[in-house]
Design a protein that fits this description.
Helix content is about 30%, strand content about 35%. The protein contains 4 helices and 6 strands; from the N terminus they run ααβββαβαββ.
């Protein structure tokens, strides 16, 4: 799925697969959680990887969210983010942070986060390499009660 999107570099895919490997090797570890969304034939069409931010209370890092290109634009990514938010609230989740790049093919990602209730909260110029900033988006989880 990560390769099929065409959005990720080989190094990014390698890192994403490292996290999948950690979760599969040790399901009891507490650093990363991964959930997949399947279609009506039980084939993965999207996935999300996140974990608690060390030394915080109720802050979680969104490490990866990817949707099969054949299913993009159908609400899969938004559904995964809703699933994440609703699942974190009972665990004391307050904030979800997501980092992304400013190179042109990540503009779609930035718009996706903004559309789904995230706000840009930080930007580090030339973080990844000269001309490629890191942008941090944050979504505050609302209390229902």
């Amino acid at each position: 799925m990560l390769i099929k999107t065409g959005a990720f570099t080989s190094r990014e895919i390698e890192v994403a697969m490292e996290l999948v490997g950690i979760v599969l090797k040790d399901p009891m570890q507490k650093d990363y959680e991964i959930y997949c969304m399947g279609d009506d034939q039980d084939q993965a069409i999207g996935y999300i990887c996140y974990g608690p931010t060390p030394m915080t209370q109720g802050t979680f890092d969104l490490y990866w969210i990817a949707v099969d290109p054949d299913f993009q634009g159908r609400g899969v990514g938004s559904t995964l983010l809703s699933f994440l938010g609703e699942g974190l609230k009972p665990r004391g989740g307050r904030l979800i942070l997501a980092d992304t790049s400013t190179i042109p093919h990540y503009k779609k990602t930035q718009k996706f986060y903004l559309k789904n209730g995230f706000q840009e909260v930080a930007r580090i110029s030339d973080y990844y390499y000269p001309g490629n900033d890191q942008v941090t988006f944050c979504r505050k989880l609302e209390d229902k009660g």
